[in-house]
Amino acid sequence: MSQAEKDELTAAIMEAKVCREENDKLSQMRADVLAENKRLRDELRFIREQKTESPQPRAHKEDYPTNTKRLEEKLRSQALEITSLKDEVEKRQRQMDDLRNQLKQSTKDLNETRQQLKLKTLEYERSVKHEDDNKLMDTIRQLRKENDLLINEIQEREQDVADLEEEIQKNKEDGDNDLEEKIMTLEATIQERDEDIEVLKDHITKTQQELEEKNEANKELLIELQEAIEKSEQIRTDYENQVNQINELEIGIKEKDERMAALEEDYKSQLYTTEREKKLIEDDVKELKHKLRLALKQLKEKEKEAEHVEVSRKKMIIIIYSLTSPSEQKWKERVYSLEEQLKNFRGVVYRLKKAQDNNTMIKNTLEQPYRNKVKKGNESNRTNINTLEQVLKKLNDELRKELDDKTREYEREKVRTTELQDLYNQQLEIIRELEEKLSKKSTMLALSLSEYDELQANKKIMDSILVKQVTGTQTFHERIESATMNH
User: Fold this and answer.
1) I need a labelling partner for 33 at 20 to 30 A (CA). Which of 18, 184, 238, 323 fits?
2) By the 8 A CB rule, do 295 and 356 touch?
3) In this structure, are residues 383 and 320 in contact, taking their beta carbons and an 8 Å threshold?
4) How far apart are CA 366 and CA 386, in angstroms?
5) Each residue of 244-270: pLDDT tens digit?
6) Rg of the chain taking only CA atoms, in angstroms
7) What DSSP letter does each residue of 70-124 carry, written as one string?
């Protein structure tokens, strides 16, 4: 656990102690207020008992309402003080809850730190045990080498003793008296070698005892090592479980990422489709505008042709009026009938595409009678065609005017729709802000009403208590009225 965490935990504990002390002070203040209320109730009870036991003097009767009002004011002030103390206690309680939560979080962090420290300690102990095992094995190997060297030396000493004994036996057999001193020297040497052998035996015995002790220690170390291995296996199992959980979480996160990527792809494809449709619509609009320009151009050409036809018609009218043919009335009737037929075409031309088709059809209609007129060379047919062209000119003028009106009306409606959409968005934003304010006001109003109801309930309780303590069976106002009448 770091020093910063320790300082934070200490500060939280000290703050909790301070809050606890303040809470105790508030509790003591609340107890004092309750004691004061009890004392006031006792005074009221004492006044009531005095009044019932003995007749009151006139001055006391005059002071009774004043004292009662004073006590009521004091009780009300005490009630307000109790309410403020309750609010303060609730505030301190909330602070205590926050401090408890902070303390729990700090305790949790401390436990996690202790767990990490425990794991680090186990790792350090395993590493230290591993080093001790290595040192022990090195010591055992060194002792075994020393034992081998000692055994070899003992064997050499035994071989030397055997050689000396053979030499002594040989010298005895030879009867050489001169070798007596040499024999004594050899015996002394043998004695020294025997002593050295005894010392070596003692050393070997001690070494064997040390080896046995080392073996016992090794057995204990092996048991501890086995336990450590089991713990490490458990830790490894826990680690693998945690790794599996992490892998599962990673798989879940990866699946969510893939799902998000798929959703993004769908959104991109939908956006691309929308853009493409928008582009197609724009192309259609451009094409319609182009067709509109062509239609207007054709209408202008038709106007020019109609003007030319109008001039020709005027000339033909002059010629027709100059003639007094018997068939004049018949041709007029045909002209009227043709005019009635042409009036029926006005209901067809309301859209731009149909207007172009109607213009083409009318053009073909005009060309066919004109060819027939050239072939026949009939002046009356020319007059009929001129009249027909005049009617068509009027029809084209009306169509052009209607088209212009519709275009202007479309632009006005488009601008108006944009303005209405902006106004609608602004109104939605204003409504959303008003709804948030209304929600806040409703919450505050509900809290205020709840506090008001609680105050009213407390007031009723205090009034009933005062009425019972002061007047007994009569109400407080009746008691005041009776006191006023007596006065």
Assistant:
1) 18
2) yes
3) yes
4) 10
5) 777 777 787 777 777 777 777 776 777
6) 62
7) HHHHHHHHHHHHHHHHHHHHHHHHHHHHHHHHHHHHHHHHHHHHHHHHHHHHHHH
What does the domain layout of the chain look like in residue ranges?
A: 1-175, 276-439
Q: Encoding tokens for residue 468?
A: 């019972």
pTM of this structure: 0.21
Residue 378 near residue 325, CB atoms below 8 Å: no
CA distance readout (Å), 478 to 12, 56, 485: 58, 18, 10
Report the C-alpha dihedral over residues 153, 154, 160, 164, rounded to 10 degrees: 160
Scanning the structure block, which residue is given the tokens 């001193």?
181
CA distance 84 to 90: 10
Q: What is the mean pLDDT of residues 274-292?
A: 74
* Total number of residues shown for the chain: 487
Taking the C-alpha atoms of residue 370 and residue 362, their distance in angstroms, rounded to an integer, is 12
26, burial (CB in 10 Å: exposed 0-12, middle 13-18, buried 19+): middle
Q: What is the pLDDT of residues 410-443, one digit of tens each?
A: 677 667 666 766 776 776 787 677 778 777 776 7
> In whole angstroms, how far apart are CA 246 and each of 109, 119, 120, 242, 255?
21, 20, 22, 6, 14
Of residues 388 and 286, the one with the higher pLDDT is 286
What is the mean predicted confidence (pLDDT) over 330-338? 51
| The two structure tokens encoding residue 110 | 């401390």
The whole-angstrom separation of Cα 203 and Cα 195 is 12
Q: Letter for the amino acid at 122?
A: L
| CB-based contact 306:391 (threshold 8 Å) | no
Q: Which residues of 152-184 are buried (b: 16+ CB within 10 A; e: fewer)?
A: eeeeebeeebeebeeebeebeeeeeeebeeeee
DSSP state of 203: H
| 459-468 long-range Cβ contacts below 8 angstroms, 24+ apart | 459/79, 462/75, 462/76, 462/79, 465/41, 466/44, 466/72, 466/75
Least confident range from 85-99, 127-141, 366-380, 389-403: namely: 366-380
Residue 102 near residue 11, CB atoms below 8 Å: no
